[in-house]
Specification:
The protein is mostly helical and about 500 residues long. The chain contains 21 helices and no strands. Helix content is about 75%, strand content about 0%. InterPro entries: Na/Glc_symporter_sf, Na/solute_symporter, Sodium:Solute_Symporter_SSF.
Length: about 500
């Protein structure tokens, strides 16, 4: 397939966007440099709506921006049902999770795990998060770039260095406040970019949106009876909902890049508002991003098909570069990179908060007195950011993505089980560190077995959460007395009571 030129005007728009992101980081440098409270929590000064936008942008990567429309283009909207799980998750977070994070004034999610269980559980949760997100940074840079450069003549190494490098710099400078306000801009841009694709694609088709709707109905592109047939688990709606529920619950309870936002607002009431803001945006995503895929299906059905042998993972960038006017196309490509940068920046700041809070401050504070915590956080951002960028370049040059996918799979296996441990700690009184450690090990073993014998990642997520919760609770009954300690104020049954730190 012949690649398309990106065009001078598109480059100008993209460069303006990238410089604007750098400007945000520079603007917040002085405020972020004061102390770790400013660098990791923005001194709890972020408005609820901005924190909500930031959570949304963090959880929506460039991979989602392109893969969700691809899913709707090739199949239907069945996976959109999973996004509805946010309706159940937000009330659950507000009533049972956020109160503990706010009460303990945690910097990282894993501080709760220490108070509820033991330091070893905190270390395990934090270390696994860091490992996974260091690897994820590389993939979040690599995948959108490989998709865009497969249909255009943009140099992949150059764009990786510019997009990834500038993201590292503004995260280094602005701390979490710079990251959040960058997320707001990026969130607006990616929503606007998706809307542009829907509108331009829909109005260009002969007959407009009437044709799009007709094509969607006649080709079963929204939902069909097959989506309720248990014979194909990849389209079975109840499983999609359950799997997405547990995956999303991990993101909002056991993943530091999201939990960190809960402390950036002044009060729990403001945090609650931010979660509802995010929830509304997540619901908007369903018609917007799945709608993109349906519109593009109708467009290429009626306006001439895709090139022979076309890789549909590049569907969105191909349409943008070939069909949208110059300048506007640059804006939508900027939206794809915005989705990538919001995820990368959140990961880097969260990794640094884990390293400084869960390791340096917790275990080595007296030995590392010569270096300030903010300086150390910035060093961690530079080191992990450059490592992730280097790995993405290695993947672009060496096409070794299978090896890196294996690394992400192994470290990612621990994510949802950690969410199961959080849930066991909050919703049961019996669970203790003895059960949590053994439960995590057994849950990962069961999850690996299921993954090797199933084609559905959603089955894996469902099994991972349920097995982790169940093993932790059951095995805690066999714990020696030394593993049992005061947990008043740390469980759902005592959520309104004060917790006295041991």
């Amino acid at each position: 397939m012949t690649k398309v030129g990106f065009g001078t005007l598109n480059w100008i728009v993209l460069v303006i966007y990238l410089l604007a992101m750098l400007g945000v980081g520079v603007y917040f440098t002085k405020k972020a440099s004061k102390n770790t409270d400013a660098f990791f929590k923005a001194k709890s000064s972020i408005p609820a709506w901005a924190a909500g936008f930031s959570i949304y942008a963090t959880t929506l990567s460039a991979i989602t921006f392109m893969s969700t429309p691809e899913q709707a283009y090739l199949k239907d909207w069945a996976y959109g049902v999973g996004s509805l799980s946010i309706i159940l998750i937000v009330p659950l977070l507000i009533k049972y999770y956020v109160p503990f994070f706010r009460k303990l004034q945690v910097t990282t999610a894993y501080e709760y795990l220490e108070e509820r269980f033991s330091p070893i559980i905190r270390v395990i949760g934090s270390a696994l998060f860091m490992l996974y997100h260091i690897g994820r940074v590389a993939i979040v840079i690599y995948l959108p770039i490989i998709a865009i450069t497969s249909v255009s003549n943009i140099n992949p190494i150059l764009i990786a260095c510019v997009v990834g490098g500038l993201c590292i710099i503004y995260t280094f400078l602005g701390g979490i406040e710079g990251v959040i306000w960058s997320d707001v801009i990026q969130g607006i841009l990616l929503l606007g970019g998706a809307l542009l694709v829907v509108l331009i694609g829909g109005f260009t088709v002969k007959g407009g949106f009437g044709t799009v709707v007709s094509d969607a109905i006649s080709n079963h592109k929204i939902l069909s009876g097959a989506d309720m047939h248990i014979g194909d688990l990849t389209k079975f709606i109840p499983l999609i909902f359950a799997g997405q529920f547990f995956n999303t619950l991990y993101q909002y309870t056991g993943s530091q890049d999201v939990v960190q936002r809960y402390q950036t607002t002044a009060t729990q009431k403001e945090t609650n508002k931010s979660l509802w803001t995010n929830g509304i945006l997540a619901l908007i995503t369903i018609p917007l991003f799945f709608g993109m895929g349906t519109v593009l299906f109708s467009y290429y059905k009626n306006m001439g098909g895709l090139p022979q042998g076309f890789n549909t993972s590049a569907l969105v960038p191909y349409f943008v570069i070939t069909e949208i006017p110059a300048g506007i196309a640059g804006l939508v490509i900027a939206a794809i990179f915005a989705a990538a940068q919001s995820t990368i920046a959140s990961s880097l700041n969260a990794i640094s908060s884990c390293f400084v809070t869960d390791f340096k401050q917790r275990f080595f504070d007296n030995k590392w007195k010569k270096i300030s915590d903010v300086t150390l956080a910035r060093i961690v951002i530079i080191v992990t950011g450059l490592f992730g960028l280097s790995m993405s370049i290695y993947l672009l040059v060496g096409n070794a993505s299978k090896t890196w996918d294996l690394f992400l799979t192994v470290t990612g296996l621990f994510g949802v089980p950690i969410a199961g441990i959080f849930a066991a700690g909050i919703f049961t009184k019996r669970s203790n560190s003895f059960g949590a450690i053994l439960g995590l090990i057994l849950s990962v073993a069961v999850t690996v077995f299921v993954q090797q014998n199933s084609d559905s990642s959603l089955i894996v997520a469902t099994v991972a959460f349920i097995s982790s919760f169940a093993f932790t609770y059951i095995l805690s009954f066999f714990a020696p007395k030394k593993y049992i300690h005061n947990i008043v104020g740390l469980t759902a049954a005592t959520v309104k009571e004060d917790y006295v730190k041991q």
